[in-house]
């Protein structure tokens, strides 16, 4: 497996080439199981390589979201766990709990039994079906990579990533995620329906006696090195200015906000939105074979990084205006050359 020289302070061409080569191997192996969904897989990998970042996958059932996460865990040889969120799920079902254990000496003691959150990749399936109390149990893990049980803080393994799914159609009996928890997801990725050709390929793989297999091409140490390398990618001041101005333009009271943001947005993105743009932009640059961040890198990740951070108003709902539509106008209105001038 590839090794990376982290800590040098700057990503070099050799490290970038090795990074790209291993990413190609990961994508190739996952695609032995998953048909299509290239943008989804790319977005999930960006979140994984950003470090302590999480992704929200939204799509109707049957699009392979669970299968994607499972295949990724196998290819990366990471510990995987799946939690099916239901209204009766309790916080202890996620974090774990203390149980009474009989010792060989005859004594009884409390012993901590870890929950499914103690893994590298956590699939929180239909996360919006659990009650807010149970959703909140996952928030500490996402924010601080730890859980607190009986006043004892317990660290989670590294790398750690939550991949949550939700169904955009069936909303009866669900509990929408609060804005504070949505903001903890680096990306919100919309999972679309496959094309006719892709559907035929899915049928070939799922209705025959051949079971697709993947091979391990990386491990936890490789992912941690790749995360360290991603943070070394330099970004120019004017590109940071551009990312900041994109986020400022999501706020309806900002002078840079376009007409769509002023009319349809109640609250814009938080500073975490700008952090997401820069981190994801660095990884996108590496995926493209460059070791500096360009305006195009920021633009490419703008939709998944910002769509869940915009709170739209009633007018947007009434007129069928989506967050992606607003982001389209923001990207068109905020010009890179203005950021270059502001940085001078």
Q: If you had to describe this structure to a student in words, what would you say it looks like?
A:
By secondary structure, this protein is an alpha/beta fold. The protein has 2 domains: 13-87 and 119-208 and 216-227, P-loop containing nucleotide triphosphate hydrolases (Rossmann fold, 3-Layer(aba) Sandwich); 234-343, Magnesium chelatase subunit I, C-Terminal domain (Helicase, Ruva Protein, domain 3, Orthogonal Bundle), CATH 1.10.8.80. Helices cover 46% and strands 15% of the residues. The chain has 15 helices and 11 strands. The protein has helices spanning 13-30, 38-50, 65-76, 92-95, 132-144, 179-182, 196-206, 220-231, 237-248, 259-264, 271-287, 295-306, 314-319, 323-333, 336-343, and strands at 55-58, 80-84, 96-102, 108-114, 121-125, 146-149, 152-155, 161-166, 187-190, 265-267, 311-312. The chain has a 5-stranded parallel beta sheet with strand order 2-5-8-1-9. A hairpin with a 5-residue loop joins β3 (96-102) and β4. α9 packs across α15 (336-343) and α12 (295-306) packs antiparallel against α14. It is globular, with a radius of gyration of 21 Å. The model is unreliable at 1-9 (pLDDT under 50).
């Amino acid at each position: 497996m590839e090794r990376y020289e982290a800590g040098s302070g700057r990503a070099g061409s050799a490290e970038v080439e090795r990074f790209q080569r291993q990413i190609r191997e990961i994508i190739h192996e996952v695609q032995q199981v998953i048909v299509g969904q290239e943008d989804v897989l790319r977005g999930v990998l960006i979140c994984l390589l950003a470090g302590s970042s999480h992704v929200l996958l939204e799509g109707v059932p049957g699009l392979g979201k669970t299968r994607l996460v499972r295949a990724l865990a196998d290819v990366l040889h990471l510990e995987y766990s799946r939690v099916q969120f239901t209204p009766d799920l309790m916080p202890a079902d996620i974090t774990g709990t203390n149980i009474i254990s009989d010792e060989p000496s005859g004594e009884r003691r409390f012993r901590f039994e870890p929950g499914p959150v103690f893994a590298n990749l956590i699939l929180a399936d239909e996360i919006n079906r659990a009650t807010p109390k149970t959703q909140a149990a996952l928030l500490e893990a996402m924010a601080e990579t730890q859980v607190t049980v009986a006043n004892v803080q317990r660290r989670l393994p590294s790398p750690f990533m939550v991949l949550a799914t939700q169904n955009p159609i069936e909303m009866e009996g669900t509990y929408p995620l609060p804005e504070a928890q949505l903001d903890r997801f680096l990306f919100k990725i919309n999972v679309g329906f496959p094309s006719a050709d892709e559907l035929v390929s899915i049928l070939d793989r799922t209705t025959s006696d051949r079971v697709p297999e993947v091979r391990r091409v990386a491990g936890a140490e490789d992912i941690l090195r790749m995360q360290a390398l991603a943070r070394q990618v330099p970004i120019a001041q004017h590109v940071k200015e551009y990312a900041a101005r994109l986020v400022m333009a999501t706020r309806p009271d900002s002078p840079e906000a376009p007409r769509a943001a002023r009319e349809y947005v109640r609250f814009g993105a938080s500073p975490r939105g700008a952090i997401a743009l820069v981190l994801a932009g660095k990884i996108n640059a590496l995926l493209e074979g460059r070791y500096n961040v360009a305006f195009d890198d920021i633009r490419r990740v703008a939709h998944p990084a910002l769509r869940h951070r915009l709170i739209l108003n009633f007018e947007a709902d009434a007129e069928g205006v989506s967050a992606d539509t607003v982001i389209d106008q923001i990207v068109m209105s905020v010009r890179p050359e203005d950021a270059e001038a502001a940085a001078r």
